[in-house]
Amino acid sequence: MKNIRISAFTFLRNAVDYDLPFVESISSALPIVDEYIVALAHSSDATEEKLLQIETDKLKIISTDWIPEVYTRNTEYARQTDLAKAHCTGHWLLYLQGDEVLHEEDHSKIMRAIRKAHEHRDVEGILFNFLHFWADYRHVHRSHTWYKKEIRLIRNLPEIHSWRDAQSFRFFHIPPKSPADYLSKHHSRKLRVIDSSIRIFHYGHVKKIELQHKKVQDAANTFYQNKKTISFDFGNIHNVPLYTGTHPAVMKDRIAEFEKNQAHPSFKNKPNPKLHKHERLKYRLLSWVENTFFGGRQLFGFKNFTLLSKACELKEKFKI
């Protein structure tokens, strides 16, 4: 777009060991961005080698330290996100985590959204719709317990920082300098955003059950100092809705490999399984109400953004 520069950014560490589709994630955004910043913490696997194999001159790798013993409760993710953001030079910044992929059909929507938002200084961010895939590429959550929308495009303002475990962003009046700052609502406010129909394909829970267990166990050990053995089960997959749409083209080979190796986990419940939150009766009922009577709109849940188009004349201008 003329005179509007777009940066993409993310953070990575041991992404190969955790089987993240980070190459596909980066590749899905390259056609529409001017640069892609990756904050790469020291990794013991082939993450850096895989990054260097991506054929582009837009990629910029920033070496970072990793101190989860200080930035506990997953706030290290927010700090790493901020380290990557600090190197972005674009007017607008596209944030994708290593397990989040764009669909090529949404590229034009992203460009149109940025063009429209850029004209209005009140707009600080743009919401994307999340598709949370579970256990395989055929099942996607529509549960109340999974966030439906999140901010993935932000205006490049120094006051905007990652928040909590890097799920979202806030406008900080005082820059965060500690884990407590990233977790607190004090000295910050929600971003003013507009909605869109742009999708994020979230594949973080699509992997062999052994790898998913390792991911959950490592996170507990690293960020919560929980040394207990944690069991993991995908639960009753048949209660998770089927996905009937298309996947991003960059995911074609990965999906084919998954299907060929029959990497689907065993979905048999244990005699007394510990239910996932989305499997509990009250949340299943709430999800049914949302999906049946409210078009999937989430009721009651906390939203870390202020939706501008609900309250002002921008509503008609931002039908993206």
Query: What pattern of helices and strands is seen along the backbone?
Result: EHEHEHEEHEEEEEHEEHHHE
Note the main sheet. Answer: 13 strands, mixed
Low-confidence stretches: 266-272
Name the average pLDDT. 89
Give the helix proportion (percent range): 10-25%
Radius of gyration, whole Å = 19 Å
Put simply, the count of helices is: 8
Beta strand %: 15-25%
Number of domains: 1
Structural class: alpha/beta
The CA-CA distance between the termini, in Å, is 17 Å
Shape: globular
Beta strands, count: 13
Protein name: Glycosyl transferase family 2
Organism: Schleiferia thermophila
Name its key features.
single chain, 320 residues, alpha/beta, 13-stranded mixed β-sheet, 8 helices, 25% helix, globular
In short:
Helices cover 25% and strands 22% of the residues. With 320 residues, it is of the alpha/beta class.
How would you describe this protein?
With 320 residues, the protein is an alpha/beta fold. The protein has one domain. The protein is 25% helix and 22% strand. The protein is built from eight helices and 13 strands. The protein has helices at residues 22-29, 47-52, 75-85, 107-118, 179-183, 209-223, 252-260, 281-293; strands at 6-12, 35-41, 59-64, 92-95, 100-101, 125-134, 140-141, 149-155, 160-163, 168-172, 188-194, 199-205, 305-307. Strands 1, 2, 3, 4, 5, 6, 7, 8, 9, 10, 11, 12 and 13 form a 13-stranded mixed β-sheet that branches. Helix 2 (47-52) links the parallel strand 2 (35-41) and strand 3. The chain is globular. The relative contact order is 0.16.
